[in-house]
């Protein structure tokens, strides 16, 4: 649909765009990224025919751009216009109707049914029909942006060029506009758009071109562009790549400059022991990965609660009941990892272990009423039936990679399994050694301060500390539970 070869150009003396080559297929949503002044608008102006290149070629639908008359080009390529003050007096419909000029022929340029339909459709698509008769001066910045999009769409182009189309738009209109453009590309429209927002461009574009000082730094899929080093090279800014929670497109988080942070040591002093719950409220939020009833998954959490419930606790509605309980007791659900267990809080055990430059503090409550050997064949069930459980908290005084979080969970699980084996805990259904219980829960939470720990496998300093602390805490809690039960 569009082919750009060795394109160079600028304004008068100096070159702004230097030797840029790429092509865009029909139906693509193609994004142009780059820092301020990198030549994005200049490139777009050359593609729209507004600025003449110094050298190189542009082919639109396989024909050189200079072989088109301005009107012919306008029937193929539309540009989202920028607002000028003279447009304030026009109504919305008049503004959108200006998009039809390239389709009007003959000396009298009469307004046809086709023109009327195109204008109406463009206003409907952009949600601007409602204020068709209002003057542009009476609209908000976001509403005006949609009117200009309607004007470009009324032109019925095959290629739409946009320069930061989400500028001035609030979150919901950004999404609406990009959803609309995406839908239009599936109907065959080719969209080439400049973006400043890396994450939006990654989310919506099929391909991206990253510009740096007038040249192409990288061109490719969002996954090819959204690489921390590329973004750092071009924008001279530190970012960290993360997965989008729902869509397989990378996202970048800005890493703000931070003052040097003092180390924090999570230990027994922070353990609050109440009759029906244990809590830890560290002085700083901890980066956490857990399977808690509350606050599961990744998050920065500042409160950790392990709550005792009766053996006959009704599990039908446990998520709602648990949320109500934690709230009633003053825990902010957005900040808390909450777990539940039938184990009495007096049976909890904890252990601090230090290895080289890292330390861990582990708290465990181990009840084995629902002990299971996961390696044996059995029927499955989805509902949680009774709350007999091993809950393990692993607090790490150190800065962990995501790899270390996952390895930390693995190492802690291995240590738990060994503790059960050494204690001779059996699965009552199979009579074999249990590997856990049916409702075990685990947390690994790190201060993200202090020495960096890339790994937490079984022979790394962090892995050794986790393995030992979990083994000791689980073993001790099992002994306490068994002792108390024996006395009943
Ligand atoms: N009309 C002009 N005459 C002379 N120089 C210009 C003109 N327009 C832009 N420039 C210069 O060309 C360079 C690139 O500008 P351009 O607008 O293409 O960058 P951009 O990547 O779109 O930047 P931004 O993200 O800030 O919009 C800048 O140094 C700018 O000052």
Care to describe what's here?
The chain has two domains: about 250 residues, P-loop containing nucleotide triphosphate hydrolases (Rossmann fold), CATH 3.40.50.300; about 220 residues, L-amino peptidase D-ALA esterase/amidase, CATH 3.60.70. By secondary structure, the chain is α/β, with parallel strands linked by helices. Helix 4 runs antiparallel to helix 5. The protein binds adenosine-5'-triphosphate. InterPro entries: AAA+_ATPase (IPR003593), ABC_transporter-like_ATP-bd (IPR003439), ABC_transporter-like_CS (IPR017871), AdoCbi_amidolase (IPR002808), P-loop_NTPase (IPR027417). Keywords: ATP-binding, Nucleotide-binding, Translocase, Transport. It holds the Pfam family CbiZ.
In brief, what are we looking at here?
It contains twelve helices and 26 strands.
Number of domains: 2
Q: How large, in whole angstroms, is the Cα Rg?
A: 31 Å
N/C terminus separation = 81 Å
Please identify the top-level CATH class of the largest domain. Answer: Alpha Beta
Task: Flag low-confidence runs.
Answer: none
Fraction of residues in β-strands: 25-35%
- Supply the number of helical segments: 12
Strand line-up across the major sheet: 6-7-8-3-9-10
The chain-level mean pLDDT equals: 91
CATH superfamily of the largest domain: P-loop containing nucleotide triphosphate hydrolases
Question: Which small molecules are bound?
Answer: adenosine-5'-triphosphate
Number of strands: 26
What is the 3D form? elongated
User: Could you state the oligomeric state of the chains shown?
Assistant: single chain
